[in-house]
Amino acid sequence: QLQLVESGGGLVQPGGSLRLSCATSGFTLDYYAIGWFRQAPGKEREGVACKSSSDGTIHYADSVRGRFAISIDNANNMVYLQMNSLQPSDTAVYYCAVTAASGYYCSGFKDYEYAYWGQGTQVTVSS
């Protein structure tokens, strides 16, 4: 059974950093596209970072490029999202997700194409 469990969220001051973790099980991580998404209150869910399964490329939303970094530890079935220079606008529930589509190119951040989701972890950026 495929499972995703996020952790690492919390309260941080503007300009601070957090590293989110996504523990995965039940599948071979290297074969799947994986993404980080977030949803702020009253807003639609949006993609922030992803790794394609088609060619291994990594993509970022414009709003986080240069501040966030996705990394994958295939040996330990972990996915991370390092978040630096956090801003109040980064406040949201963050989710990791996996798509079962083979050869998937993830730059479009189409959340409806991701079949498996974690429960989310809350990130609050506030002074």
Q: How does this model look, in words?
A:
This protein is mostly beta strands and 127 residues long. It has strands spanning 3-7, 10-12, 18-25, 33-39, 46-51, 58-60, 68-73, 78-83, 92-99, 116-117, 121-125. The strands form two sheets. Strands 2, 4, 5, 6, 9, 10 and 11 form a seven-stranded mixed sheet that branches. Strands 1-3-8-7 form a four-stranded antiparallel sheet, with no helix packed on it. It is globular and about 40 Å long.
Structural class by secondary-structure content: mainly beta
Biggest sheet overview = 7 strands, mixed
Distance between the termini: 40 Å
* Average pLDDT score: 95
Q: What share of the residues lie within helices?
A: under 10%
Q: What is the 3D shape?
A: globular
As residue ranges, the low-confidence spans are none
- Listing every helix as H and every strand as E from the N terminus to the C terminus, the arrangement reads EEEEEEEEEEE
Cα gyration radius (Å): 14 Å
> Strand tally, please?
11
Helical region count?
Answer: 0
Q: What kind of oligomer do you see?
A: single chain
**Strand residues, percent:** over 45%
Question: Can you give me a brief rundown of this structure?
Answer:
The chain contains no helices and eleven strands. The protein is an all-beta fold and 127 residues long.
Indicate the topology.
Blueprint: E1 3-7, E2 10-12, E3 18-25, E4 33-39, E5 46-51, E6 58-60, E7 68-73, E8 78-83, E9 92-99, E10 116-117, E11 121-125
Parallel strand pairs: 2-11
Antiparallel strand pairs: 1-3, 3-8, 4-5, 4-9, 5-6, 7-8, 9-10, 9-11
